[in-house]
Amino acid sequence: VEGPRRRSSQAKRTPRFRDMLHRGLIALAIVVCCAESASVGHPGGVQVEWKDLSYSVEVGKGPQRSRKAILKGLTGIAPPGHVVAIMGPTGSGKTSLLNALAGRTLASPGGCLSGDILINGEPRDEGSFRRLSAYVQQDDVMYPHQTVAETLQMAARLRLQASDAGSAEYRENFVGSLIQQLGLVKARDTVIGDDKTRGVSGGERKRTNLGIELISDPNVIFLDEPTSGLDSFQAESVIHTLSKLADHGRTVFVSIHQPSSAVFNMFDYLLLLSEGEAMYYGPAKRAVAYFSSLGHRCPNLFNPGDFFLDLVSIDYRTPDARNTTSQTVQNLGAAFRLHWSKVGHAKARPTPAKGAFPPIARMRSLSDLLTAEGRPITPPPPPPPGPRPKFAVGWGQQFLALYGRAAKEVSRDTQSIVVRGITTMIFAVALSVAYSKKDIDAQKAIQDKTGAMFFMAVNQAFGMIGPVLGSFPIERGIVLRERMARSYRLSAYYLAKVWSEMPVVCGLPVVFGCITYPALRLRRDIKHFGIFLLIMVLNSICATSLGILVSAATSSFREANSIAPVIMVISLLFGGFYVNSQNMHPFLVGLSQLSFIRHTFAALSINEFKGLHIPCEKGAADCVSGGDQVLSRLSLDTLTLGRAILGQVALIGMFNICALAALRRNMPSFEPLKSGQVPGPPSEPEGKKQGT
C-alpha cells in the first residue's frame, strides 16, 4: 500500500514540478533576452586604466640642462558610463595627462613618457584605440565659411562607413538629429566664422566641434578645456551634453580649469592635480568629505571647484607664501598616496575578459540614442563582412568630398577674390598705360617688350604666391584632427586643395593677359595670343605651387612669409633678364633652371620674337632686323618654345611632389609609451553603477 501511495503522490507532484520548471525556464529566457537587449544598448563600453604614468622633458642647454617632471606617477581607472574631470591650477599637467591617455603626447627632444595604459584590461594599441576614441581640442579650428550643417555633413561623409555614407538619406537624418540634440538648430545654416567673418557663438562652436567627433560614434571622448571662453550657461549646456553621452556607456575625460558649482555637480569622478601629482582621485561627490577629513573643510555655500583650486595652488607672490603653499601641496600628495594604497586597490573591480579588445564594445549606438530622443533614423545597411578598413570611404570619395569643401571655401571668400581681381586689373591697366604711346621706334620697342614680358612674369608670380603662403599653417590644426580620426589620405586632401585654387589661379592671369596683350602691341594673331595665355597660366600655377611648397614646409605664416621673398628674389635674379646665362658660372647656369621666372620669360620671348621681322631705319647702325637676333642676345636661340613650356610643367610637378612630401614630414609624431604595470581603480561614485 505504501508503494502505490508514494507513486500516487509522486504522480501528483510531477505536474506541479514540471509547471514550476516550465515557469522557471520562461523566466530565465526572459532574463537572458533582457540581458541580451541590454548588452546591445549598453554592453560595457571601454574601461581606461593607467598606472605609474609619468612624463618628463629636458629643459635648458649645456651645463644648465636638467629634466623637468610634468606628470609624476599617476594611477587610476575610469570605468565606462562616467565623466572624469581633470582639474588643477595652470601648469599642473591637466592637458599633458589628457594627451598621454589619448595617445597624443607630442614627441620632443629628451621627452620620456612611461607607465602603463590598458584598455579593457589589455595594453593599449595605438591604431585600434584611435579608431574608438575622439579628441576634442581646446581650439575650435574649423573652416570659417562652412555652415554648421555643412561641417557636420562633411564629417559624416568622411567618417561613416562606405555603406552608410553612400546613403544620403541616412546621412541627412543622422546629422539633422545630431544638430537637434546638440542644440544647434538655430545655428544650422550659419557659417562658423572667424576674425573677419561673423559666425556662430562660442558655445555653438564648441558644440559643433564636439559634434564632429561624435560622428564616428566613439567609445571614449577626450575634451581639452571644453568650457573655456564660455559663459556659465553655455558651459553647463556643453557638460550636460557630455553627461548624457556618458549615461549611455561612453567614457568621457574632461580637462577643466575652474568649473561652476552646477558644472562640478555633473562630474562623476574628479582627478585633482598639482605640480603633476594627484591630490585626489575618486567620486567627485566625496571629494569635499575627503579633504574635510584632512582638516581642509570647504565652507558652506562655497563652490567646491574654487575651493579645491585654492587649496592645491602654489602662491609665488612671496617666499613665505610659496613655502607654506608648497608644503600644503606636498602634504596633500602624501596623504592621497597613503589613501590610495589602502583604498584604491582594495576596491578593485574585475576587468573585461581577455579578447574584449580590440573588438569594440559598442555600448548604445549614437543612431539608437538619437532615435530614442524623438527623431527616428533609418538604420544603415549592415557593414560588409571582413576586417574594418583603415579609412571609412575610398580615395575617390575622399577627393570629391574634400574638393567640394575646399571649392566652397575659395568661392565664399569673396573679399579675397575681389581684392585679388582689383589688384590684377590695376597692374594690368598701369602696364598698359606705361606702354600706350603710339608711333614708337621699332628698335627701341624691343627693350620695351622684353622689359614688359619680364615684368608680367614677376608681377603674376608675386601676386599668386602671397595668398597661398598661409593656407597650410592655418589649416594644419584641421588636417591633424581629421587625419588622426583617419578621415582621409593626405594625398586626397592635398590634390583637392590644389585643384580648388585652380579657377582663381587660372582666371586672374587670363584677365591680366586680355588687358595687356593688345596694349603692348604683341603679335596679333590668335595662335600667339593663345600660347601667351597658356604661358601666363602656367606661370601662375608655378608660383602657386611654390607658395604651397613653402607653406607646407613651414610651421607658421610668419615663417613662410619670411622665406618666400628670398626664394622669389633669387628666382628673379636668375630669370634671364638681369644676368645673361652665358655670363654665369656653369654651376649657376644649372641652378638657374630651377627659376620658374626664367622659363616663363624664355617662353614669352620665344613666342613673341621667334621668326618676327623687325623693321630698320635706313642707315641705322647696329640694327636688329629679326626676332631671332633678339633671342640670340638673350641666349635663348638654342631653346625651343616646347622646351620652355615643358620646363614650367616640370617645375610644377616638382614643387607639388616636394610640397606633399614636406606636408607629410611636418605631421607631428607622438611620444611612445614605455610600458609599466597594471593599475588599480578608484571607488565607485554615488548614484551610478559600473557598466562593465
Brief sketch in words of this structure:
By secondary structure, this protein is an alpha/beta fold. Helix content is 54%, strand content 10%.
Describe the structure.
With 692 residues, this protein is of the alpha/beta class. The protein is built from 24 helices and eleven strands. It has a six-stranded mixed β-sheet with strand order 6-7-8-3-9-10, sandwiched between helices. Helix 4 packs across helix 6, helix 4 packs parallel to helix 7 and helix 19 packs across helix 20.
Rough outline: elongated
- Overall pLDDT confidence: 80
Report the β-strand fraction as a percent range: 5-15%
| Rg, Å, rounded | 34 Å
> Are there runs of 5+ residues with pLDDT below 50, and where?
1-18, 20-43, 345-364, 369-386, 677-681
- The number of distinct helices, counting runs of at least 4 residues, comes to 24
The tally of strands reads: 11
Task: Report, as a whole number of angstroms, the end-to-end distance.
Answer: 59 Å
Helical proportion?
40-55%
The largest beta-sheet arranges its strands as 6-7-8-3-9-10
The assigned structural class equals alpha/beta
Give the assembly state of these chains: single chain
The major β-sheet equals:
6 strands, mixed
